[in-house]
Amino acid sequence: MNEKKKNIRITDIARMAGVSAGTVDRILHNRGKVSQAAQEKVNKVLLEVEYRPNLMARSLAMKRQFVIAALIPAFRAGEYWEKAAEGIDKAAKELNDYNVVVRKIFFDQYDLASFEEACKAVRSEDLSGVLIATLFSDAVTELSEYLDEQQIPYVYIDSNIPENNQLAYFGTNSYDGGYIAAKLLTGRIAQGSDILIGEIVRERNNSSTQMKNREKGFMEYLHKSGFSGQVVSCKLHIEEPEYNKEVLDKVFDTHRNIKGAVMFNSVCCVLADYLEKSNKREIKLVGYDLIERNIRHLSKGTVTWLIAQRPEIQGYNGIKALGNFLIFGEHAPRINFMPIDILIKENIGYYQNNNL
Q1: Are 130 and 122 in contact (CB under 8 A)?
Q2: What is the pLDDT of residues 106-158, one digit of tens each?
Q3: Which of 93, 196, 287, 312 is most buried, judged by most C-beta within 10 A?
């Protein structure tokens, strides 16, 4: 029997999913909580039958304005989050005809207090949905609990917090991104060599959710592979080259066997600047994300690998998922992993990172 009917009913969906009609109704109309297991069963059936709500009934809802807040870090031209913002803008333009408005709320990605202020702004507005860049996991979870109470759907980008109730996640598997970085690095340095981890200082010493997960994957690979060298960590500042030089000079004077290095956020260019000026080109450096300064160092060979994660597609798909849910009742798959792209100087010229 072909279940893909145009006139599929809630009772049909409930029967196929093995749940009550009330549960299906709550999921379709975002009313009240349901278990994750029930949500996944119903979502699977919705995809199988290509369910779309009655567009005539939905047309009545078009008189209402849907307001989506995009909670992302502030950025300057050429930085990582600029690409995510471009994807958000593209999706917002496509949803404009459906009376969807997208408002960006910015925060300082190195300052938890700034994120907390942005969360207050979210709470003060009458919102239909929220896109959240999940840099500060505890604060994101607190905000998510508030959105759950208000029955406001939300989508995560950048890194996932699987135990929460997000409508969907778009981004890479951060743990695997760190695991891959360790595999690349240890394959190019001699056994017994030391590895430097550079970390950008944040207010209140808060590492981002993604950085924590990447470091966890990185260290797990070192443990499993029998890495016998020493892992050396140092804290650097985003725009203080003189301070960074003083710190790094001391690190390299003390640990003369460092042959590899990694930074788990998007600014490995901070460490690459030092390596270039200090003529330490033998150091193999792996970093993340295709910001302009990173690409320049990759092209020159100061950075050996860049691991990319397509932020513009994360932003675009996140907003579209919220819009499609609000307008049509469509559920995106809950986990949507981006490819983990490995770039070297020989292939960076062919890489098309911004095709949406």
Answers
A1: yes
A2: 999 888 999 999 999 999 999 999 999 999 999 999 999 999 999 999 999 99
A3: 287
Structure tokens at 42: 């119903």
Residue 15 corresponds to which amino acid?
A: R
**Separation of alpha carbons 212 and 205, rounded Å:** 12
C-alpha span between 106 and 114 (Å, rounded): 9
The token pair at 75 is: 């950025």
DSSP assignments along 66-83, one per residue: EEEEEEEE---TTSHHHH
Sheet holding 305-308, edge to edge: 231-236, 194-200, 258-263, 284-288, 305-308, 341-343
Write phi, then psi, for 256 (nearest 5 degrees).
-85, 0
Question: Residue 174: how many CB atoms within 10 A of its CB?
Answer: 26
Structure tokens at 220: 């797990």
Q: Could you report the per-residue pLDDT of 27-57, keeping only the tens digit for each?
A: 876 666 778 888 888 888 888 887 766 654 5
Tokens of 119: 């969360």
Strand, helix or coil at 223? helix
Distance in angstroms (rounded) separating the CA atoms of residues 209 and 135: 5
Determine which helix (DSSP H) or strand (DSSP E) holds 285, and give its type and residue range.
strand 284-288
Residue with tokens 């960074």: 244
Residue type, 295: I
Which pair of tokens denotes residue 176? 């695997």
